Amino acid sequence: MAKEKAVRKTIKTASTPAPARQAKAKPAVRRHHDANVENILGSAASLFAEKSFGLASIREIAARAGISFPRIYYYLRNKEELLYLVAKRGIERSITSYDNLSANVTDPAEKLRLFIENHFSSSTASPAEAKVLIQETSKLSEPYLSEIRAMERQYTETCRTLLTELARAHGKELSRARSRILVSLLFGTLNSMGNWFDTERDMPHLHEITNEIYRMFAGAVQ
Amino acid sequence: MAKEKAVRKTIKTASTPAPARQAKAKPAVRRHHDANVENILGSAASLFAEKSFGLASIREIAARAGISFPRIYYYLRNKEELLYLVAKRGIERSITSYDNLSANVTDPAEKLRLFIENHFSSSTASPAEAKVLIQETSKLSEPYLSEIRAMERQYTETCRTLLTELARAHGKELSRARSRILVSLLFGTLNSMGNWFDTERDMPHLHEITNEIYRMFAGAVQ
After folding, report:
1. Residue B164 sits in a domain of what CATH number?
2. Which residues of chain A are within 8 Å of residue B215 when distances are taken between CB atoms?
């Protein structure tokens, strides 16, 4: 838990440029509020992942976050809003960290490699959140569902563009059907990691694993 | 439902050699019993897939199978036994149909292609059962869990052997670590199909999709 929070803080810090933070330093009350929100979202993600959205209760989420049951409603309206916020934060993080990583990269092959590595490390850093994104978001109702699906599309379109660009760099034009299939297969491969990746056994092979995936998909479009 | 039953029957018939069936024709009572068991397992698979093992009740399974609630206990002891039987039948089917398909094939590349196609078509023919195998079997307790895990290992070892043989045919030796990673990635790719495969949109591309996967994994070991 402490480790997951540390990772989250690092990612958040990385996504907010330092000068901007200094210029708009938040008052202590606001920082405390944000820390509580982060804490609640982390507890919600882990409970949704363990028990599913349907079976986890706001009462349990409040208890895990160390916030009293009535007081948690100061931060959110209902359980569905929590699922929406957990999903939104997860996708935003992946998008932001990929954008930062690839900001100065022009080689399409290297961009694809970075996209795969970034998705992988986001998932392994926050496995509960990754599981919620994969398994639970379909339980959202409107307007939350459409908003999350639109963010997912933005993210997968980034990936499709990378494959298309890489194919073009090798003088090939990917058909829309084929790029859709390749993107689906790539996300399938990446998102099923949670089912078999064993931190102790597989973390030493992390680079090897992402490289294996990169070579297969780069090879497919070359 | 009617369609799924038809598919199931075809697979079962295909896996039982015709002469054996003729020699040991079952009495009508036994056939009726078997049909009820098939019916119960199909209803259990669909309810476990829709609601999860924990939330589906024997009462609902009986209702969906059209069997009275007390009478269903003539066929099974409890809900866990049903999960075990659904999983066992699913893995056995995939193993049997692959064995039949590859019986006279010696080319390791062709065997890998058949393995991928067979896994894919088993999953698309019985999506509920495939989902149960992927998401619900971890909820089994002993001795069921060990038995199912042993069957899964047998199935994945078949796949690992295929990759190793294909590498050898190209003069390469796959390390144990690498073949494990490739097998995990391949099952990840295949088993996440259920999350994106849309029958209407993707069935016309089925051969293209399995070929894409085959080329990536065959390419990885060559």
Report:
1. 1.10.357.10
2. 220
